[in-house]
Fold:
Amino acid sequence: MRYFLTLLIVILIIPAQAHAVGIKLQRALDQLKRNHYNYAAELRLDLQSLDPTDLSSAYLILGMSYLKSANLYSRLHNVSISANLEYLGRISNMKGKNKSRMAMMFLAEAYLAAKRPAQAAFRYQRVLKDPGMSSSARDLARAGLGLSLFLQGNRNQAEKLWSQLAGSDDPEVLSELASAFIRADLKNKNPVQLSERALMLSGKSRKRVPIRVISNSILVYTAGGMIEKGLNLVRGADLKGSTFQEELGRNKTLLFYDLSLLKNLAALYTKASIYYLEKALERPKPSRMVFYYLAEAYSLDGITSKSNKAVDAFLTSWPLPKLQKSAAIAIRAQNSVASGKKSEGRITFDILARENWQDPKIIAQALNACSNVLEDCSEIVSSAEKLIQSREDRSYSTLNYALGRHYLTRKNLDSAVSYMEAGRDKSYKNKIEYNDPLLLVDLADVYFKSKKFSEALEIFFEMSLQYPAVRQIQNAMQGVYSMVQESAGDVKVL
Structure:
């Protein structure tokens, strides 16, 4: 997508240089180009001071920034759940007098976040049977168990558990209950009021709002369409903070994290992207790129009908370069598969592969979209592998990454790491300013699954400088590294 970003700079910045406020737009675009999505989104705070003629461009930049953040946090969430299931599973199975009690609680939360409610319910029930658990932990377990049972079709038992928590004054318990209602699609249970009460109680009793309360409130605000409130809450939060610390003996402390945080951030940023892109569309003479990014954002949010309409508007309004046209067609093919028209989507992907077999950027776009929704992308993979043979230059980096990601989704780790390493900038191998952050996340995932723990942790250390919420992944990977190697490892989480 760097080509699209370069094009956007030409579209937006050159006209904006006619007056001074264009500097703010350019600064945001510079941050976006450096993959500092959070800094680019700070443009939101300057909206009131911008000239009205700049608002359309500003909304588009914000829409892009939040869309890229949404994709990044969604990928981070998947890696975090995978790493934490292994880490928490190992801890919960340990024996001895210093055995962790809370590991079972957070393992249940990991299973619930992984959409495995039966496994979550089994572990929540074990928490509730543990006589050494605090009353707060028991109430959190009741909220989680209720949701696990609800998702398995046992609504009556879920309601019985939740009814025991309604009178709580514990902000974390109230926010967990609000989150459960949202995830169960029970908006009639007043989750917004519960969340607001949790935030109010946290403000009264603590110097810093617990990260669990923040994470759950993000979910509630997002579901309620209160995007600005959600973004304001995130801006003041310590996203690297743990939700619980457990002391085991004199020199051992375990940190546990909110494993829904990354997913909740992804959901918020998806909605924020749509919110600002739709505002851009309402301005006079919106950039044609608004339609493209709206198509991508709607598709990410699962709204395929609106995504297809945005694709149609993008394809028919102006003459397009071939790369842009192909990218939009790939989104439509992805939507076809997601809406149940698998054969239609596969045919479109195959046509893209046959008609563009000499263009690495178009083949990479098509392969990425196909890998999102289909197990069989053989024709595109064949085109990509033929095209990429003996190619070392950077113009093929996106194609290398697309092939690597395809093989990662197929659990072929050797091929995945080979292609991803070829796609990474060799001079700045872990710097997000020079590499697609999604590539780095996926490569770290491959390294972890291949037991190359140092390499995985090095990537996340660099990424944590801009995205502190990855601390929960670092903690889990470092923990597994320590147990597998029977040492603290040679990379520390700082």
Observations:
- The first strand starts at residue 244 and ends at 247.
- The radius of gyration is 23 Å.
- Residues 322-423 form a domain with the Serine Threonine Protein Phosphatase 5, Tetratricopeptide repeat fold (CATH 1.25.40).
